[in-house]
Amino acid sequence: MILLIGSQKGGVGKSTLCTNLAFFLAKKGRSLILVDGDSQESLSRWASDREESEISPQISCIKKNGRLKATLMDLSQKYEYVICDTAGRDSVELRTALVVSDAIVSPFRPTQTDLDTLCHLENLVEEVKDFNEKLKAFAVLSMVNRSKGKKEEIFARDLFERSNFKLMESFIGDRKAYQKAMGTGESVLELDDKKAKDEILKLCEEVFNV
Ligand SMILES: Nc1ncnc2c1ncn2[C@@H]1O[C@H](COP(=O)(O)OP(=O)(O)O)[C@@H](O)[C@H]1O
Ligand SMILES: [Mg+2]
C-alpha cells in the first residue's frame, strides 16, 4: 500500500503523522518504509534520531526529491507499506506520488486558512483520478484544541460533507507530546500522554482499516 501524506500547507502535522503511522505499523511487525519527499527533511531527521538513539523497532527512511512515481512503485513491491511525506505545497513530489498512491491523507487544522486550501487539493485529486482510479482521499483534523470549544471543528466537519475528501472520524489534538516525540525520534505511542496515544491508535485503526 502506498500512503501519501500531503497538503497545501506547511506546519499542519504531516511529518508528525507519518512518524506515528510508521511506528504503529512497525510495532505490529509489518514491513514498511518511509519516503521523505520534502527537502526540509523533518521525517528523515526523525528517523536518524531514532537510529542514533538505538530505539527499537528501527524505522527505515529514504530521501527523494523530484519525481517519486518510479521510486514509490519499486518500493511498494518490496514493502507492505510505503508512507510518503511531501512538502506543504503543490509540488512535483505531491503530483507524481498521487499518480501511484492508494490513498492520500491530508491533515487540516480546523482554521479558515487551512480549510481554504481544500478546494485546490480537491481539484488536484479529481484530475489525478483520471490516471489513478484507485486513489482514495482522506482528511484528518489536526492540532484540534477542544478546550476552545467545538465551533471550528463543527464548521470543518460540515465543509467536508460536501467534499471528495472523506473526513476521518478520529482527530489529532494539539498536544505537547507530539512536539516532544518529533524531537526525540519517537512516536507518541512510546510516551505517556494517554490522550495522544488513544487518539493516534484510533486514527491508525481507521487509516489501516483494522
Ligand atoms: N498534534 C500536534 N500538536 C502539537 N504540535 C504538533 C502536532 N503535530 C505537529 N506538531 C508540531 O508542529 C510543528 C509542525 O509539524 P510537522 O509535522 O513538521 O508539520 P508539517 O510536516 O505539515 O510541516 C512541529 O513543531 C511539530 O512538532
Ligand atoms: Mg513536514
Q: In short, what is this structure?
A:
By secondary structure, the chain is an alpha/beta fold. The protein has one domain (2-208): P-loop containing nucleotide triphosphate hydrolases (Rossmann fold, 3-Layer(aba) Sandwich). The protein has 9 helices and 7 strands; from the N terminus they run βαβαβαβαβααβαβαα.
Tally of DSSP helical segments: 9
Number of domains: 1
Described by the principal axes of the CA atoms, the overall outline is: globular
Report the uncertain regions.
Answer: none
Strand content: 15-25%
Structural class by secondary-structure content: alpha/beta
Distance between the termini: 14 Å
The first-level CATH class name: Alpha Beta
CATH level 3 topology: Rossmann fold
User: What's the pLDDT, averaged over the residues?
Assistant: 97
Show the helix and strand layout.
Elements: E1 2-5, H1 14-27, E2 32-37, H2 42-52, E3 61-63, H3 69-78, E4 81-86, H4 92-98, E5 103-108, H5 112-115, H6 118-129, E6 136-141, H7 151-161, E7 166-167, H8 176-184, H9 194-208
Parallel strand pairs: 1-4, 1-5, 2-3, 2-4, 5-6, 6-7
Helix pairs in contact: 1-2
The protein binds adenosine-5'-diphosphate and magnesium ion.
Adenosine-5'-diphosphate binds next to helix 1 and helix 8.
